[in-house]
Amino acid sequence: MKPRVAFFDFTSCEGCQLDALNLEPAELLDLLGAVDIVNFREVKTDRSEEYDIAFIEGSITRESEIARLQDMREKAKVLVALGACACTGGVNCLKNAYETEDLLKGVYGECAGYYNSIPARPVNAVVTVDAYIRGCPPTTAEFVKVVKAMLLGKKPDLPNYPVCTEC
Ligand code: SF4
């Protein structure tokens, strides 16, 4: 049975997922031949809640996202943080310099009370992460490298970029 792969997004611009789709046709066909993509909102409507490998894009910025991410962690044998937002919190962490209430009022005005927000945090602040694909967005070469390593049951050999900082 092929490994079942799922892509999920939290607070993000979805550029990392789009970039994952931007593979050379030959690479894409190779990967599609090696895995079953069972959940990928941007490309298919059929979705399964049973998967082996979960790619997580985006940072965690709402209370409700914590339980959603924990559920993914329970289901996935391998969980990969995809992109700077997931790996470090990314650009979303800019909001951490301000009071949440002030930000909500600034964006939503009188409707601010309808929204909730927590300080932005990376995926590994909530659950254990098995592999990181860094970059904003990551390079397709690194994405392919990680997927191939996982399919071979190996730990991907990727550089730990010193320019990335945690929130
Ligand atoms: Fe978008 Fe960059 Fe965040 Fe990826 S890491 S979701 S490209 S802002």
UniProtKB/TrEMBL annotation:
Keywords: Oxidoreductase. Residues 13-149 form the NADH:ubiquinone oxidoreductase-like 20kDa subunit domain. This is NADH:ubiquinone oxidoreductase. It comes from Candidatus Dehalogenimonas loeffleri. The chain holds residues 1 to 167 of 249 of the full protein.
